[in-house]
Design goal:
Layout: H1 3-35, H2 43-54, H3 58-61, H4 65-79, H5 95-103, H6 115-121, H7 131-138, E1 154-160, H8 173-183, E2 197-200, E3 205-207, H9 209-216, E4 223-229, H10 233-246
Parallel strand pairs: 2-4
Antiparallel strand pairs: 1-4, 2-3
Helix pairs in contact: 1-2, 2-8, 8-9
């Protein structure tokens, strides 16, 4: 084999070795971010992962990112008391349906309660035996002897991200980057800008923590769409979690 081809072959092998090393490093970063939320992930680790996945320097595209990342860590540490597995899962397309159910009093929120449904499902069920029972639970407020007692104020509002409080302990940076890759960096007119969050009357986030983080890290002054429900967070968590489970088929 000619000498120049031997040199070329050695160079190719070195590049392959380097590529293998980079892929292994990337997989390790991914594993770390999957196991740990933002509050436990150093900004250096988060940025290394972001720059690799996005293909550009996130700090150059988003001035002040490191400061906002530290602020977000503090917010989660102060207020993030709920485990993710205890949080509701409601697709953003279902938020308006939840709003209508609350406004029309479909959900059995206030006494008197529909004791027959409660005996079958519990007050705030975390699973349903079948879909017919789930549908009966979603309208039990209309069949509890007081047709208008369960109507709750629920309105779609625009609110600055900086006014919201995250109460979920695990918010994963990997999910935030996935949103950036799919939709681009958030801002006015971007796809995820119009997907509503669910918040309590005190502006605690009930559903949509990763969307919140995606906005906050770019610009805390961005206004987002949110369904604000006039119920305290603890109670709204139980209601919305049951509601989300009732939609699972």
């Amino acid at each position: 084999m000619p000498k120049k081809y031997k040199k070329l072959l050695k160079r190719i092998k070195r590049l392959e070795k380097r590529l293998t090393h980079l892929e292994a490093a990337g997989q390790e970063l991914s594993r770390k971010l999957k196991r740990r939320g933002i509050s436990a992930t150093p900004v250096e680790v988060a940025l290394a992962y972001a720059n690799q996945k996005l293909g550009y320097d996130l700090c150059e595209q988003v001035p002040g990112f490191e400061t906002r990342y530290a602020n977000l860590q503090s917010l989660i540490s102060m207020h993030g008391e709920r485990e993710r597995r205890h949080m509701p899962v409601i697709h953003w397309r279902e938020v308006k349906r939840l709003q209508r159910a609350l406004l029309d009093g479909h959900l059995d929120i206030h006494p008197p309660h529909n004791e027959h449904i409660v005996s079958l499902t519990g007050r705030h069920p975390t699973q349903f035996d079948h879909q017919a029972l789930a549908e009966r639970w979603r309208t039990s407020g209309l069949r509890n002897g007081a047709r208008h007692d369960d109507k709750v104020k629920a309105e779609l509002v625009r609110v600055a991200v900086s006014e919201l409080t995250p109460i979920q302990a695990e918010i994963f940076f990997k999910k935030v980057i996935k949103k950036y890759r799919k939709h681009g960096l958030p801002g006015r007119g971007s796809v995820i800008h119009e997907k509503p969050l669910v918040i309590s009357g005190d502006n605690d986030i009930i559903d949509g923590h990763h969307r919140f983080a995606a906005f906050y890290l770019v610009d805390p002054d961005i206004e987002v769409v949110a369904l604000r429900v006039d119920i305290r967070a603890d109670r709204l968590l139980r209601i919305s979690r049951a509601y989300g489970e009732s939609l699972v088929k």
